[in-house]
Amino acid sequence: MVLSDSIRDGDLVCLWDGENSFYILLQPGSTFTTHKGIIRHDDIRGRRWGERVRTHKGSEYLLMKPSLYEIVMYAIQRKTQIVYPKDSGLITLKLGLRPGMKVLEAGVGSGALTLVMANTVAPTGMIYAYERDRRFLALADENLRMAGLRQFVTLLEADILEGIEEDNFDAAFIDMREPWETLPILKSRLKATSPVGFILPTTNQVSNLLHALYDEGFLRIEVEEIIHRPYKPVPDRLRPVDRMSAHTGYLIFARTPAP
Amino acid sequence: MVLSDSIRDGDLVCLWDGENSFYILLQPGSTFTTHKGIIRHDDIRGRRWGERVRTHKGSEYLLMKPSLYEIVMYAIQRKTQIVYPKDSGLITLKLGLRPGMKVLEAGVGSGALTLVMANTVAPTGMIYAYERDRRFLALADENLRMAGLRQFVTLLEADILEGIEEDNFDAAFIDMREPWETLPILKSRLKATSPVGFILPTTNQVSNLLHALYDEGFLRIEVEEIIHRPYKPVPDRLRPVDRMSAHTGYLIFARTPAP
Amino acid sequence: MVLSDSIRDGDLVCLWDGENSFYILLQPGSTFTTHKGIIRHDDIRGRRWGERVRTHKGSEYLLMKPSLYEIVMYAIQRKTQIVYPKDSGLITLKLGLRPGMKVLEAGVGSGALTLVMANTVAPTGMIYAYERDRRFLALADENLRMAGLRQFVTLLEADILEGIEEDNFDAAFIDMREPWETLPILKSRLKATSPVGFILPTTNQVSNLLHALYDEGFLRIEVEEIIHRPYKPVPDRLRPVDRMSAHTGYLIFARTPAP
Amino acid sequence: MVLSDSIRDGDLVCLWDGENSFYILLQPGSTFTTHKGIIRHDDIRGRRWGERVRTHKGSEYLLMKPSLYEIVMYAIQRKTQIVYPKDSGLITLKLGLRPGMKVLEAGVGSGALTLVMANTVAPTGMIYAYERDRRFLALADENLRMAGLRQFVTLLEADILEGIEEDNFDAAFIDMREPWETLPILKSRLKATSPVGFILPTTNQVSNLLHALYDEGFLRIEVEEIIHRPYKPVPDRLRPVDRMSAHTGYLIFARTPAP
């Protein structure tokens, strides 16, 4: 075992009691309170990941560095349906995201996908994230700060259908109800033959989008879905869990047209 | 539409004829040959992504920048079972990979997962990739170069069971037949409570690994699988394809023990 | 539309209020009571399937004949994990059940599979259903009566491991925790090369059973699972439901050995 | 082990060489020929299920009674997409089929579902199976004879859209391209609130059918799909197979309207 790094103000910390996890953003003077007692943030600062802290009542919590998966699934605040890691992991690969890329995102919602894409294009790239709803934008802002990825995202309160200033994007992802309306913008603002992606909950929307993609000359059109099946991790009684997610959304990918 | 970047020597280029894709690494003096005719690499250099080139027989190909998904699925050479993007996208998130991280990988194979992890920790991080079989190592080396990610990977011809020099890893992924043997090394070489991941094809191996993970004090043990279901992208006859992959492997995740 | 049959005492009746379903076994003098009011069974007798009845408060219920699917899923009483229709439908086909066959079942539980098998071998066949637990046997008895299939099942309070009297079975299904113990009995009591089936929740049990099946000379051994995915039946927003069953059990099929 | 029944002319017999299966309909004077040699049907007649026969070259085959699953999957001749057992098993339960029922089927195709439904309503019920295409009807006729279920099916060369003579059906299943056109007939020819089922390959067809079902007043409308995942039956290396069916069709169920 090697020494872990020290925990500092601004770090997102997972406190784990052996069963449940709690996520806090370390801040001077704050306290973490559960029914098992109180822990002062100031008593966490300077500890190393993997160390234990105790509440004033003596209950123990392990300090762990949250993975991006945990952040998306458990730590961020949500007011919208989010893009789940089972999907966002594949999305970054299908969009061909690389450090340094300039990416358009429309329909930020709680910022769950924004986080994941920002992490991939960082530290030299940038996500231009458009969202019409100011409340969602504020939420995404907070979630990105918590994840330590705020500086790789330009948050814009705007409807991309009303026109955008930026161009020369390497890729785009659209999470909107009627994404077919964005196709002319994607054609004019992305580099030719750039990857674009969409997520849609219903088959009817997928059919509509496919029609529009063909009509607008998009290339290499694909539709797929990802099913995530968790297992009970019991070595002598290995089996899937009882219930699982049946559906998040259909993923559609294409390339913007050639000149 | 905006001007794309120019294509340079060393770039991996996808040539698409509207149906099939071909992948070439652009090199001075080389030629690309199919039954539709010949294209000289020198005639591609300097063109922009999204432009078209013609064979000496007049057949047209579109020049596209391959996504990481395409590189893994279609461009790399394989001599082993690879980790597929449906799995590797999730793996990077479960391992919490971020730019700058130092990651241990054992069982590199063709380097399909190495590529994806390198892309996430780049440009400031490093994957230390161990592989006992020299032929696989040579293959991974070539595939990483092709993907432009070679500088973010330290390839090591070694069996990690015989001991390794590096330590202080932020995360690890093990793709070996008997991964339970690596647990003591993971415990001693990773930072405390770091994420570790494994992929295993059979349920028996999963049971064995789970036993070992509990015995060795690993935390937050999870098992899951990802099913990828492609659809025929026909707007008026939307439906899944006829046949799909039934299984690649079970994914197991955990955290190294606390001190 | 044609006239339906009349409802008689002893019929299982589904009362549907347009949203929820209630199942009653029609009996002289009984009453059906919900928060919407009371309906006397005597007011249902003689009505036809598809007619409506009203509670004393004026709420309307439609009288429908329950399908076997509904009976298994909603009408029977359960004290055990049941075999679901997605599995039992396939089981009858894999076991090759036909009218007139003589079938061994061990581990009757609530009788959910017994119902389905009895329906297939009826009216000339017979299910010999063994169950050690008297409470389950009483439950299965009641459920079979409710479904109108009691006369096609011989319920036996016995552990088949302690020996059984019957033989010359055409097929068998075993739903027990350690089904490998039953293989010698299956070999001696079934016709040669008869189909046998098993359901098991964990992969470890499947491995154990497979070992035993090979050791005992069983033929054509198969393992499979059935995943049932419901959709929201909304024509303009067609999509799977949010959550679904992730697992009921693995199905194992084989043939008893040749002489 | 008990003595099996003797094999007679007209029986469908599975010959199994330990790896491959062959299906023959036993007939006086016929021969079964493979590259391993010849077996005369007359040498099989009178043998018992589970016995072995030899070709003139000495290769051995085991005589097994085919299950309905095998008949549908391997023995019948197909000129159409068939309804697979994973679906037909559930269909019989959702339609509530019982011995003695009178069932309407439209779109018989190769008769794969007809077989399964006939087996459930036998010996006192009847499937009225409509098919416009004479070639398919001839094929279904042959397949039903082979399966020994011909007497429980009335095959009718007709398009039900042009009107049918029979009525008073207990249930119906429609396997046609535009099944919404059949709804008025289902309403007029089935008993009120009877179960009806449909299978459709595309989501667009499902949406169309759902619209029509609601418009025509059908009740309790449901959509689902069944995924069948086979495993490699190797006890120490248990895992799913590599490739599986991704889709056969969506199943839609409803009840005909009340008066």
CATH class membership of the largest domain in chain A: Alpha Beta
CATH architecture descriptor text of the largest domain in chain A: 3-Layer(aba) Sandwich
Query: What's the total helix number of chain A?
Result: 6
Report the biggest beta sheet of chain A as strand number plus sense, adding barrel if it closes. Answer: 8 strands, mixed
Roughly how many Å apart are the termini of chain A? 56 Å
What are the segments of chain A in which pLDDT stays under 50 over at least 5 consecutive residues?
A: none
Shape of chain A: globular
Strand content of chain A: 25-35%
Strand order of the largest sheet of chain A: 9-8-7-10-11-15-12-13
Number of beta-strand segments of chain A: 15
What is the C-alpha radius of gyration of chain A, as a whole number of Å?
21 Å
Helix/strand/pairing category of chain A: alpha/beta
If you average the pLDDT of chain A, what whole number results?
95
Total domain count of chain A: 2
CATH overall fold name of the largest domain in chain A: Rossmann fold
- In helices, the fraction of residues of chain A equals 10-25%
Order of helices and strands of chain A: EEEEEEHHEHEHEEHEHEEEE
Largest interface: pair, residues per side: A-B, 85 and 85 residues
Subunit arrangement of the protein: homotetramer
Query: CATH H-level name of the largest domain in chain A... which superfamily?
Result: Vaccinia Virus protein VP39
